[in-house]
Fold this protein.
Amino acid sequence: MTDIYDIEIQKQDGSPQKMSDYKGKILLIVNTATGCGFTPQYQELQELYERYQKDGFEILDFPCNQFGQQAPGDAAEINSFCSLNYGTTFPRFAKIDVNGPHTAPLFDWLKKEKSGLLGENIKWNFTKFLVSQDGTVIKRFSPQTSPQKIEELIQKLL
């Protein structure tokens, strides 16, 4: 696998989606959880999405239950929680693993492109990867990084 656009991801219903569908867009790819201390970041993510989606910015949300079992629900429960509490409208995909032997191919690729404090491993929920229009991983952000702090970099890429 040479670039992000060769990867196939799974929609919540299990059907495949090609990352090439997002070619030419700026992507913020996030592993999320509904029961995490960082869950309020959904609101900031939604605000960014509303501001820049029309300009070619997408947020791709990948629920992950690997950290403290903080995303225990099924797709319907997760969607309901995010819609009711944060009004999210950005795409959400099937629940995945981001570390270990069952790591989703997208996160395998992202981690190889930009390692973090724990090397390639993802530290916790709400780790964020910013990807440019040509599929280059620009930066990896820790869970503690507020989405608002990424806004200036998004504006520069647009």
About this structure: The radius of gyration is 14 Å.
